[in-house]
């Protein structure tokens, strides 16, 4: 169960990185063409990066200690 959780967490992190980069890319392209609310998309991409860092931190805590992430 621990190995499956770790593998799924790593796969989710990789797809999360791809999604965050894509969101920032779309926001940058929208800003270049002066589209409305393109800054919101870029901000959501950065927010996704922050949440991804928190999820990766939680995964590393889970790998090292099973009880620590529960707090």
Description of the molecule:
The protein has 71 residues and is mostly helical. It has one domain (2-70). The protein is 82% helix and 0% strand. The protein contains two helices and no strands. The protein has helices spanning 2-32, 38-64. Helix 1 packs antiparallel against helix 2. The protein is elongated, with a radius of gyration of 16 Å. 1% of the residues are buried.
Write the H/E string, N to C: HH
Q: Which regions are unreliable across 5 or more consecutive residues at pLDDT < 50? A: none
Helices and strands: which structural class?
Answer: mainly alpha
Radius of gyration: 16 Å
Helix content: over 70%
* Span between termini: 20 Å
Instruction: Give the number of helices.
Output: 2
Number of strands: 0
Name the average pLDDT: 85
Q: Give the strand content.
A: under 5%
- Described by the principal axes of the CA atoms, the overall outline is elongated
Main beta-sheet strand count, sense and barrel state: none
How many individual domains? 1
Question: SSE layout and pairings?
Answer:
Elements lengths: L1 H31 L5 H27 L7
Helix pairs in contact: 1-2
Summarize the structure.
The protein has 71 residues and is mainly α. It has two helices and no strands.
Task: List descriptors.
71 residues; mainly alpha; 2 helices; elongated
């Amino acid at each position: 169960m621990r190995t499956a959780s770790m593998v799924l967490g790593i796969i989710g992190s990789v797809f999360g990185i791809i999604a965050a980069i894509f969101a920032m890319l779309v926001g940058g392209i929208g800003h270049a063409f002066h589209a409305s609310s393109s800054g919101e998309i870029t901000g959501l991409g950065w927010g996704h990066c922050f949440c991804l860092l928190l999820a990766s931190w939680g995964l590393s805590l889970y790998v090292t200690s099973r009880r620590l992430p529960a707090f």
